[in-house]
Amino acid sequence: MGGLIKYRSRFIVWNGVFSSYSISLDRRRSETRLLHAAITKLKPPLLVCRSPSAPSSRARALSLRARSPPSKPSSSPRASPRTPPSSRISPGTSPPRRAPRRTPSARCSGSAPARAARTRSTPSSPTSPSPATPPPRSASSRSSPRAATPGGPTGTRSRPRSRRARGSAAATLYGACGECGDARRVFDEMAGRDVVSWTALVSAFVRGGRFVEALAVFGEMDVAPNEGTLASALVACGRLGAVRAGKAVHGWCLKRQRELELIVGNALLDMYVKCEKLHLARRVFDRLLVRDIVSWTVMISGLVHCRLPSEALELFNGMQTSGVKPDKVVLSTVLSACASLGALESGRWVHEYIERKGIEWDVHVGTSLVDMYAKCGCLETSLSIFHKMPVKNVSSWNALINGFALHGHGREALVYFDRMVASGLPPNEVTFIIVLGACCHTGLVQEGLGLFNLMNNSYNLSPWEEHYGCMVDLLGRAGLIQEAYGLIKVMPMTPAVSTWGALLSACQAHGRVEFSQQILRHVHELESSGSGFYVLLSNLYALNDRWTDVKRVRGLLSEKGLWKEPGSSLIEVNGKTSEFVVGQTNHQDMDAICAVLFMLMKQIHLDAL
Question: Are residues 454 and 481 in the same domain?
């Protein structure tokens, strides 16, 4: 699901220039800097919050006229008719005191209406002097030239706060466009920083994929983080797999507040799921007082990702009981769980639910349905849904081709591979793993060699270790042991245990016991990190009749606490899925199962005669 918490940046530009501005990740650098320049060049008068009790247009005109430079005295002894009587200077009186000169920092700038708005901080009264002779400011007013108007919240907004808001908006803007360096530069140039500024920088690094820098900035914060900061930090921890750092953030949240907020709780769920700590994720999920669709989606997808499809279906049933309606994302995840279990009835129920509720199909829902029906053996239904899909991507074609490959229809898989290429959609690495596996299970050696060479020559795709493993298995099944061994020696990466295991199985199948000695020398050079290494080594010793070494290796496997996951198979009967494990003897219907198997073996024996 990858990506579960999505952010859209909205920037409010003051004075009604724009109501909102949405930024997408593919914007060019030039557009970003032009918008930043536009925000930076906004003058402080544009940021004035106008009071409801604004003076009339006549008062603003008088204020502007009072601020204009004095005109030359008239030759007539009469006073100008434009001069108010209260402003005339009578003989014997001292001239009015001139207002102190304003400093450049406190000087008004901008348009005429904006300068007139600044005069609201000294409202006129019946006993106050006329606008032509402003009264002297008191000591308090001289010390704080940016004092707010008596209107309180409706007064003039301070200039540092406005600059900080513009800087935070610019940092968020650069982060949304992936320009982390420019976001850091804007942040460093800010004189004052609040939690919004820090959150903008942390989220910018997270959006840009620089998760280490995001956590470093989070550690440098000198203010208390908010929900957005914590969510961004937890996303970085999840992407890095830094479960210890995520636990530290979790502990900080528990110390500050008893109950987790929904946004932080969902971010914690996502972090623990990405770190594959499902028991901690389930603990957080159970303690959430309120769960939305995101909470259920993260938990269900985490169980499916960690190969626990049965638990995912149980949780989906609990989601329905809670009253939360599933969306397309949850239904696609549940269909993946049904495909893993082979639960055809559950998958059909989800399909009917989609049709009954009128949920719009997209490429993800269609691909999940194709994959579910194909893995459950309903190839005709899968093919029918595939043809009904209005839009198909690479994953859709891969799901259909994989369905043919799983059920041994290698030729049909290659046919639809050719149709995919003819449609103009280039295959990816997963597509070639699927078609090489189809060739392997049907013995199409020449076709497999041609596809392997086609990867690099036509599509410029470098083979993975899985591609080499498929080719080794393909050549080994065909009895070309020496060719498979030669391919392993020219691999650009270290062969995995599974690759050597495929070659060993080919040696056993074709009676090449002497060749296993060469494999044994290479296997000793591998790192013994998992149980697969010891199982392979034990099989090699058994193939060479070295039973003492077999016993020693199996003892090491037990001492290290490693175990090999046994083979299993799933079957659904009357809507109930049953799992059978190799060596299992405690099934409730074991007697009936053994009786049916005996009848089948007898029928096979009779058909062979």
Answer: no
Q: Which residues pair with 263 in a beta bridge?
A: none
Full DSSP string of 196-243: HHHHHHHHHHHHTT-HHHHHHHHHT--S---HHHHHHHHHHHHHHT-H
pLDDT digits 0-9 by tens, 293-338: 999 999 999 999 998 998 999 999 999 999 899 999 999 999 999 9
Paired tokens of 78: 């009469």
Q: Is residue 528 part of a domain?
A: yes
For residues 35 and 177, the answer to whether their CB atoms sit within 8 Å is: no
- Cα–Cα distances (Å) from 483 to 119, 355, 432, 478, 540, in that order, read 91, 52, 20, 10, 20
- Count of residues making up the chain: 609
Cα(120)–Cα(122) distance, integer angstroms: 5
What is the pTM (predicted TM-score) of this model?
0.66
Residues 6+ apart with CB under 8 A from 466: 433
> What's the total number of domains in the chain?
3
**DSSP for 431-461?**
HHHHHHHHHHHHT-HHHHHHHHHHHHHHS--
Neighbours of 518 (CB within 10 A): 12
Domain that holds residue 534: 464-565
Q: In which residue are the tokens 């059920």 written?
A: 407
Nearest to 473 by CA among 446, 441, 510: 441
pLDDT score at 382? 96
Q: Which pLDDT does position 529 carry in this prediction?
A: 58
Q: Are residues 572 and 550 in the same domain?
A: no
Each residue of 105-148: pLDDT tens digit? 433 344 444 444 444 444 433 343 333 334 444 443 333 444 44
